[in-house]
Design goal:
This protein is α/β, with parallel strands linked by helices and about 230 residues long. The protein contains 7 helices and 10 strands. It has helices spanning about 15-30, 45-50, 65-70, 95-105, 130-145, 185-195, 215-220, and strands spanning about 5, 30-40, 55-60, 75-80, 110, 125-130, 150-155, 175-180, 200-205, 225-230.
């Protein structure tokens, strides 16, 4: 069984994380399962998982290590986790989220607190950095989005950009969005302007200084989930 794993904590992000995981099941042709690392005897989000109609798996230990270990299951196609309990701030996400996204070589959706998640996704935004690696990383997501008839907004963040194969596909649900300026500053603004429900970013899993500015800025300010696709 293919799984979208929702890593839930006993905080304000738990419900948006579950809703995002359920919304992504169609995109990944998967089922959603909740995963919780117990911090104390009363921290279980069982009630939320039950209300969402999905199974909850629990374990104990270090949250980052246990989440990373759970994603090694070959049935796990994608991971969903919360950004942090408070929106905004000097850091793009909480430490657990930052540690996890650099260690999991699978798609990871980072969900901001208080995000409003539809039951079904209809419109996704895909900024391109103009490299063949980023284009390849997005290709499978594009195919799945096309299969499920989602509207795809492709944002040119550099010029000239290297577009993946879908850019030449005669598909009425693919639209090109052009912006002049700094890519890291445009992604969230365009997502808000276009009412995108999901931002999909290819990235190198490197958060060291001088790297992944687009990812960091988007995670810090996005109102919608950000699906990170590791690039080779």
């Amino acid at each position: 069984m293919t799984i979208v794993l929702a890593a839930v904590a006993a905080d304000v992000c738990a419900q948006p994380v579950l809703r995002t995981a359920i919304a992504l099941t169609e995109l990944f042709d998967a089922s959603a399962i909740a995963f919780h690392v117990r911090e104390n005897a009363t921290s279980s989000p069982q009630a939320l998982a039950t209300a969402a109609g999905i199974e909850l798996r629990e374990t104990a230990g270090d949250a980052t290590d246990q989440i990373v270990a759970a994603t090694r299951d070959p049935d796990v196609a994608a991971l969903v986790l919360g950004a942090r309990a408070v929106h905004g701030g000097p850091h793009p996400a909480g430490q657990t989220a930052l540690d996890v996204i650099t260690r999991v070589p699978k798609p990871v959706a980072v969900v901001p607190p208080h995000a409003h998640i539809p039951q079904q996704l209809a419109r996704i935004l895909m900024p391109l950095e103009g490299t063949s690696e980023s284009s390849l990383a997005l290709e499978n997501t594009v195919k799945l989005a096309h299969q499920h008839k989602l509207e795809i907004l492709v944002l040119h963040v550099h010029a000239p950009a290297t577009l993946p194969a879908f850019s030449n596909h005669e598909h009425e649900r693919v639209s090109l969005v052009h912006r002049l300026g700094v890519a890291a500053d445009d992604v969230v603004a365009v997502a808000r302007e276009t009412a995108a429900e999901l931002i999909v970013l290819a990235w190198s899993q490197d958060l060291s200084p001088g790297h992944a500015r687009i990812v960091s800025e988007t995670l810090a300010h996005s109102d919608v989930p950000v699906l990170l696709m590791p690039a080779a």
